């Protein structure tokens, strides 16, 4: 059996789609002999010890005034490869981790696969120096793995020479999202957040640029006029939190919004099953786009219809008119976006059809046993 070292800069307790993706990806590989080299974080030992794979937390990057910052990554990974007799390295960022993997291959002859989740490619192709480093990192890899066709195409526009080694491996929602929680748990949450007799729209996301929260606040008054019993539940936190909450106050929507804040990933399931609609108006922001959007897949696994904004790979996560509806935040006016949301909320039969088709698609295509076939020749 191959011994695999997975190196990542994003991991629990970090929040967000990339950290969740890597945790679930490692769990899907737990039947293999896998070691995860993750960032140092306080208070993680109890959580780490419960995982079905080994987690090693060591320093990864030097302070910004020391260059190159990746020296700790290289030396720790080299030690782990020797100590655990590693046969394969999986790196979950092109830069700097992919470059480190190339150095490790040169030193220890260990093959590596590079995984990209979006931002690393979008930022790494912005200047000549980073493009050169990215080319060097990828050219000696065995495969370059993307989380969407959109991201793969964007990468190949810059590096067409790597088409033959480029593949797509979609993230998969955790199995827990496919099963409805007990009614008592759902009823308790309805009582806690005053949702009894309400229609619920849910958003789960980091509160950062590109997620469309200001746009959704702006159109919400139009939606509430058509759906007066609507409640919007927001789960997440981030640098734009204070700004978004202030916008909600300015639009006098405090009675409509339930700001729930951060919820541990393993406790998210019942919130999806409370919802009649999942909405996140993603959009490109300063050249950055959504890689895919794991939360859209989680909503689909729970059988919840989605309204999403066109951005990067989101159109692969949400199939327009089949599993949800897409809007273009940059081009569609407020009335169009509001009408799209209202269309699903006021038509339970249509909403149910979208949700059922979404769940069927997740069950058929977005399971780890299916997606891992992309790299089976390397991990088996």
Low-confidence stretches: none
- Rounded mean pLDDT score: 94
Task: Please report the distance between the alpha carbons of the first and last residues.
Answer: 7 Å
**What's the CATH H-level superfamily name of the largest domain?**
Glycogen Phosphorylase B
Q: Based on the coordinates given, report the CATH architecture of the largest domain.
A: 3-Layer(aba) Sandwich
Shape: globular
CATH class of the largest domain: Alpha Beta
Separate helix tally: 17
Quick structural summary:
The chain has 380 residues and is of the alpha/beta class. The protein has helices at 17-28, 45-50, 71-84, 94-108, 119-124, 128-139, 149-158, 183-192, 213-226, 241-250, 269-274, 294-301, 314-317, 334-345, 348-365, 368-371, 376-379; strands at 3-7, 33-38, 54-57, 88-91, 112-116, 143-146, 166-168, 199-204, 230-235, 257-261, 277-280, 306-309, 324-327.
What key attributes describe this structure?
380 residues, alpha/beta, Rossmann fold, 2 domains, 6-stranded parallel β-sheet, 16% strand
Description of the structure:
This protein has 380 residues and is of the alpha/beta class. It has 2 domains: 3-169, 3-Layer(aba) Sandwich (Rossmann fold); 175-365, Rossmann fold (3-Layer(aba) Sandwich). Helix content is 43%, strand content 16%. Strand 8 (199-204), helix 9 and strand 9 (230-235) form a beta-alpha-beta unit. Helix 12 packs across helix 15 (348-365). It is globular. The model has no long low-confidence stretch (mean pLDDT 94).
């Amino acid at each position: 059996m191959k011994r695999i070292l997975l190196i990542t800069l994003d991991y629990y307790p970090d929040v967000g789609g990339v950290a969740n993706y890597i945790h679930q990806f490692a769990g899907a590989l737990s039947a293999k002999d896998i070691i995860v080299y993750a960032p140092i974080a306080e208070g993680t030992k109890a959580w780490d010890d419960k995982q079905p794979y080994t987690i090693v937390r060591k320093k990864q990057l030097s302070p910004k005034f020391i260059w190159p910052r990746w020296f700790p990554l290289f030396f720790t990974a080299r030690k782990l490869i020797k100590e655990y007799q590693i046969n394969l390295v999986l790196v979950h960022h092109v830069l700097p981790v992919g470059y480190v993997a190339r150095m490790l291959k040169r030193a220890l002859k260990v093959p590596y696969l590079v995984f990209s989740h979006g931002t690393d490619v979008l930022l790494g192709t912005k200047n000549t120096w980073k493009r050169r480093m990215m080319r060097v990192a990828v050219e000696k890899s065995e495969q370059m793995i993307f989380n969407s066709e959109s991201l793969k195409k964007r990468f190949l526009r810059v590096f067409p020479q790597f088409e033959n080694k480029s593949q797509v491996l979609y993230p998969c929602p955790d199995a827990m999202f496919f099963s409805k929680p007990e009614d008592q748990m759902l009823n308790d949450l309805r009582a806690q957040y005053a949702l009894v007799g309400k229609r619920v729209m849910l958003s789960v996301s980091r509160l950062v640029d590109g997620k469309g929260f200001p746009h959704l606040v702006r159109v919400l008054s139009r939606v509430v006029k058509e759906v007066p019993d609507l409640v919007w539940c927001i789960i997440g936190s981030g640098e734009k939190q204070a700004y978004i909450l202030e916008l909600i106050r300015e639009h006098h929507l405090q009675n409509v919004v339930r700001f729930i804040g951060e919820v541990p990933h393993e406790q998210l399931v019942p919130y999806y099953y409370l919802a009649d609609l999942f909405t996140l108006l993603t959009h490109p922001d300063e050249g950055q786009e959504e890689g895919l959007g794991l939360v859209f897949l989680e909503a689909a696994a729970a059988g919840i219809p989605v309204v999403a904004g066109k951005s990067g790979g989101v159109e692969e996560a949400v199939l327009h008119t089949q599993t949800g509806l897409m809007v273009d935040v940059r081009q569609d006016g407020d009335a169009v976006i509001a009408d799209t949301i209202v269309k699903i909320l006021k038509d339970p039969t249509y909403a149910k059809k979208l949700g059922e088709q979404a769940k069927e698609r997740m069950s058929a295509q977005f399971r780890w046993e299916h997606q891992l076939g992309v790299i089976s020749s390397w991990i088996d």
